[in-house]
Amino acid sequence: MTINMVYITAGRKEEAETIGRELVTGKLAACVNLIDNMNSIYFWEGKLQNDSEVILIAKTVEALVPKLIEKVKAIHSYDCPCIISLPVSDGNPAFLEWIAGEVKA
């Protein structure tokens, strides 16, 4: 079973907490870390933006990534939320097994 870490950004801590709770209680992620006060510089609709955002890192299994993406898109306030999944190639076997055991694959 492949473990994935899913990187997501949100505009406010409250929204990030809501998304994190939904993913964990819905068994789409075993754990979601929140990193507040990240600064993002990007172009959106032709304008240069410089915004404070919150990073979410969700730990899940590869099979649940499509459902996780759909859930985040359904509750996220952004028109085009950043949701990027990265496979985990190695790690503490006990922790990886814990992730797999906590989600509903």
Walkthrough of the structure:
The chain has 105 residues and is of the alpha+beta class. It has one domain: Alpha-Beta Plaits (2-Layer Sandwich), CATH 3.30.70.120. It is built from 3 helices and 4 strands, in the order βαββαβα. The chain has a 4-stranded antiparallel β-sheet with strand order 2-3-1-4. A hairpin with a 2-residue loop joins strand 2 and strand 3. The chain is elongated, with a radius of gyration of 14 Å.
* Mean pLDDT over the full residue set: 97
Q: How many E strands?
A: 4
Q: What gross morphology would you assign?
A: elongated
Indicate the percent of residues in helices.
25-40%
Number of domains: 1
Instruction: Order the strands across the largest sheet as they lie in space.
Output: 2-3-1-4
**Alpha plus pi helix count:** 3
H and E string: EHEEHEH
Summarize the structure.
The protein is α+β, with helices and mostly antiparallel strands and 105 residues long.
List descriptors.
about 100 residues; Alpha-Beta Plaits; 4 strands; about 30% helix; about 40% strand
Protein topology:
Layout: E1 3-10, H1 13-25, E2 31-44, E3 47-61, H2 65-75, E4 83-87, H3 93-102
